[in-house]
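worker-3 :: picked HNH endonuclease
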Amino acid sequence: MAKTPRIPIPIEVRKYVYQRDNYQCQSCGKPENFTQLSIDHIIPLALGGSNDIAVCTCMRYNRRGQ
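worker-3 :: tokens ->
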């Protein structure tokens, strides 16, 4: 199966998700500086997900899902 190309999440969406999630990892609940957070798609883009369904995760949890 071909790998889905990465599409950068627009900065406006990133800012919105950080603020909406109160700069907290949505997996472990730990508050983080935005430099330690990543935006994670709840449903991977390869499976039909979109930027509309994304949450903040700390780097540890984001890497776990990859």
